[in-house]
Design brief:
The complex is a heterodimer of chains A (117) and B (111). Chain A contains no helices and eleven strands. With 117 residues, chain A is mainly beta. Chain B has no helices and nine strands. The chains are: A mainly beta (117), B mainly beta (111).
């Protein structure tokens, strides 16, 4: 079956530009997570949605980062006025049930590699 | 947050067993231990999870120490496709479902 897809796979932006990264989760999955992975590091949590509700945005590094999931399926991560330190791989994951489960599996997309020049 | 300690890197020969250790001495009695792996240029993928007893699936086995302060992921016969970074991740009840990745162990497999 179809897994989590992300687009674009690669994005190059000039410093100061706005970017939008899209995530299509597995159909019917309730929870959606965004992570940021810097080169050589493990992924770091950014934000979490349960259906359309954003329940945790504690990992967003600044107010330039904004995420939405208006209809409880597709999600978009937007970064305004990109900076060089935003260069990273942005990973999206979805899981079947509510995110407080400690046994639920998260299914990851391939990520979007953002390079800010 | 529950802290984990894993070796930075390990090497294995193809078709030999691999034991990947993880120390998680600060987890509580209700925290599950999950393992994910990340192949080069891919997103992480789930491997296995457990609470107290040892667990097996088609990918691997998970051996959890009796005191739950450590666990070991066992790949019974390593293949070149198993070369990846392996992350041991405690799932804590008040963590809201997010995964907290450490540095992981980079496993290389030699033919």
């Amino acid at each position: 079956g179809a897994g989590v897809s992300q687009s674009p796979r690669y994005k190059v932006a000039k410093r100061g530009q706005d970017v939008a990264l899209r995530c299509d989760p597995i159909s019917g999955h309730v929870s959606l997570f965004w992570y940021q992975q810097a080169l050589g590091q493990g992924p770091e949590f950014l934000t979490y949605f349960q259906n359309e509700a954003q329940l945790d945005k504690s990992g967003l590094p600044s107010d330039r980062f904004f995420a939405e999931r208006p209809e409880g399926s597709v999600s978009t991560l937007k970064i305004q006025r990109t900076q060089q330190e935003d260069s990273a791989v942005y990973l999206c994951a979805s899981s079947k049930s509510g995110g407080t489960s400690r046994t639920d599996t998260q299914y990851f997309g391939p990520g979007t590699r953002l390079t800010v020049l | 947050d529950a802290k984990t300690t894993q070796p930075n890197s390990m090497e294995s020969n193809e078709e030999e067993p691999v034991h990947l250790p993880c120390n998680h001495s600060t987890i509580s009695g209700t925290d599950y231990i999950h393992w994910y792996r990340q192949l080069p240029s891919q997103g992480p993928e789930y491997v296995i999870h457990g609470l107290t007893s040892n667990v097996n699936n088609r990918m691997a086995s998970l051996a959890i120490a009796e005191d739950r302060k450590s666990s070991t992921l066992i790949l019974h016969r390593a293949t070149l496709r198993d070369a990846a970074v392996y992350y041991c991740i405690p799932r804590v009840y008040n963590q809201g479902g997010k995964l907290i990745f450490g540095q992981g162990t980079e496993l290389s497999v030699k033919p």
